[in-house]
Prior knowledge:
With 642 residues, the chain is an alpha/beta fold. Helix content is 50%, strand content 10%. It folds into 3 domains: 16-303, no CATH class; 343-439, no CATH class; 503-642, no CATH class.
Amino acid sequence: MxxxxxxxxxxxxxxxxxxxxxLRLFGPAVLDLLPDGATKGKPxxxxxxxxxxxxxxxxLFTPTVLQALLALRSSDPYRDVFAKAHSLKxxxxxxILVLAIMLTSRRTFPALSDLGLPxxxxxxxxxxxxxxxxxxGALRSALVAKHRRYPxxxxxxxxxxxxxxxxxxxxNLPCDGGHARTWAEQLERAVCDxxxxxxxxxNLAVPGHDCLHSLRLxxxxxxxxxxVPPAQRWLVLLDDVHKLTAMQRQTLRSxxxxxxxxxxxxxxxxxxxxxxxxxxxxxxxxxxxYAEVVNLEDAWRKRRFEAxxxxxxxxxxxxxxxxxxxxxxTGSFATSLxxxxxxxxxxxxxxxxxxxxxxxxxxxxxxxRKYRExxxxxxxxxxxxxxxxxxxxxxxILIERDLRKSQLTFDFELxxxxxxxxxxxxxxxxxxxxxxxxxxxPYYFGIACVANLGSFNIEQFLRLAGDxxxxxxxxxxxxxxxxxxxxRQEKLLIDAxxxxxSELPRRAxxxxxxxxxxxxxxxxxxxETYRPNAxxxxxxxGIAISMADRDRLLDKEFLGRNPxxxxxxxxxxTTLAYNxxxxxxxxxxxxxxxMVLYLNRLVCMKYxxxxxxxxxxxxxxxxxxxxxxxxxxxxxxxxxxx
Length: 642
């Protein structure tokens, strides 16, 4: 296994060389995201931004990985993974129950579009090539599941005839595994020869299929090893489907939905493959009654991502070579991140900040007697220096709110009970953020914060955790404390934001538009968050447009007449595909219906925003289009220094 020193750097399933290492690093909580009956019948579309964990999820179900899991199931690092796989009825103690065929869509398939064939012939050619590869994959998986060698033991495989069904073109059934392999190889070679041929496409005798015949074989249990089926049922795993052309994706989708195979097919693709209409409609599917869709980031939002991410981090930390050698001795990844502000280090800063806030409150109260009881109550508050600072800053926010009320009030002293009623957790969270920003106190640190900054994307979390782990390892090597201080954590995390966001122009064609809009939204949210009365406590981390405006972004005729809106729609689609925004559709508030767009948590850190969800501001679509064109200009008026 490469880079055992820092396993966090292994962010792609393909880079983990052995099945045993893959299983040690695999976080089983992702299996909870699968719908009931995921391996039985309905096609399953698994989608995410880059790095969401799609390939790792698929790899777990491959026969070599499951065999390794069966062999290792009694060892500590593997028990929980086996328990999850067992609960899904993928394996039992006797062997593999669901036999998977995993194919990548990166090779050859996209090149079919270069032949210049009519759509119908191109689709038939695509299905024929897919059939060939599914059959070859099935032969290989069947032998692996029964501990046979491929291709040496192909004679052990038999394929029964399919009664009452149309024949499979070119494949005479019944036959043995060797004959089926020859058929599949010849079919694939014919397709590849067509791609490489200089003969005009209209003159090619190109084979083609009008359905996925391979699924008919799997449905019927026709493939047997030693006269018995190699497993209870089959599972076809298609990875990197975003690499297919739009027409090939549509052909695959419609074929699976229309064929209604009893064999489940999982289609893993990046969100970037979806059309703008699909992205803005939350990945809607035609025929959705006959398919399941799992958007991994959305699914994690409804689950305990922090616990899952922490579990993955601990697995990786335990595999580091420095841990095995005893050089790195913190005990766990979480404990290598200091999660508290050392009173000694910050005592001077906190004391000075407390006196500053007290002074501001005293000046407010000097002209408004009604808050004197509140101040007396706060003066009697007993807590740490930091707790006192946050409590006084919360008091300042509540006084600002009361002063800004439009209705006339008498200047009677407000009782302490009123203060207690108004000071909720959101106000205290806003106060915590405000004092951190104003007085240079670290805010983004600790394992919970790092998990939050992952924004429900496993790769993003691993990159952040990897930078922190590298820092801890380096300190241990120099015989310094491997526990990273809050201030250093925050510095490393902010640097990680800069490196990740700088990749957008390279990854996406309109990445510079995305960066321009992020800047505008970040400045707007910052302005709204740091108002003196914290009206949207703990802060604003998202924007919203009405569902009616969302519909305008789906109206091709409207966009055709309005190039600026079309540019905005394209940019917004990219932000959703790359997890820059997380969308919630049809959110009901203030008597209206909105599409809410929450910022990726890394962007929140860049603009010193809280990491909680819930705070957003709705604006007209035209305002956002203007921001993309001209940037955001804050309004004149009072506000907290930015």
